[in-house]
Amino acid sequence: MPTRPESLRAAVMALAVALAGAAYAAEVGRNTTGLPTYPHEQDGRMDAVARMLPNGQHCTHYSSSSTDALDAVIGWYRKQLPSAKVEDVNKDSLYGNYFKLQGVKLLIGNDIVNVYRMPDNAGLPLVKKEALQKTSIEIFKCNDAPQPSH
Fold first, then answer.
1. pLDDT (tens digit, 9 = 90+) per residue, 29-77?
2. Cα(80)–Cα(2) distance, rounded to whole angstroms?
3. Could you tell me the CA-to-CA distances from 101 to 36, 48, 119, 121 in Å, in that order?
């Protein structure tokens, strides 16, 4: 049976492979989801093809980041999406439960906007320090509702 550090290392590697695949399929470009783009975002990437999320939804995906404070980005999205349901980004997380993020998930119908940061004490050796100083923004424009969990 794998130890906790081995399981964590495997999870981080799986996440890195998934992100590398998404980056390969992504195109640098503008957000075409129809959901708002944060005005101080950088490194925006729109996936070239839709993907299936772990919750069963089929979505197009736009990701970016900002050096602005997490609370500033969350505040901006709350203002832009006043009817969105706001939850902790870790609730029913698309990223698994291997580490906890700081941030929120805004739910607008079938669509999802995740705004988060990795905690400073994440303890993940593969994560660059610069990544811990950026607020991540992920926008999912989904064609269908999440599948019921069992």
1. 789 999 999 999 999 999 989 989 888 899 999 999 999 999 999 999 9
2. 45
3. 22, 26, 6, 11
Secondary structure, 3-state, the chain = CCCHHHHHHHHHHHHHHHHHHHHHHEEECCCCCCCCCCCCCEEEEEECCCEECCCCCEEEEEEEEECCCHHHHHHHHHHHCCCCEEEECCCCCCCCCCCCCEEEEEEECCEEEEEEECCCCCCCCCCCHHHHCCEEEEEEEECCCCCCCC
Distance CA 45, CA 23 (A): 8
Do 47 and 26 contact (CB within 8 A), yes or no? yes
Rounded Cα distance, 139 and 112, in Å: 6
CA distance 65 to 72: 13
Domain assignments of the chain as residue spans, ordered by start: 4-142
Residue corresponding to tokens 């004490």: 121
pTM above 0.70, yes or no: yes
Strands 102-108 vs 111-117: parallel, antiparallel or unpaired: antiparallel
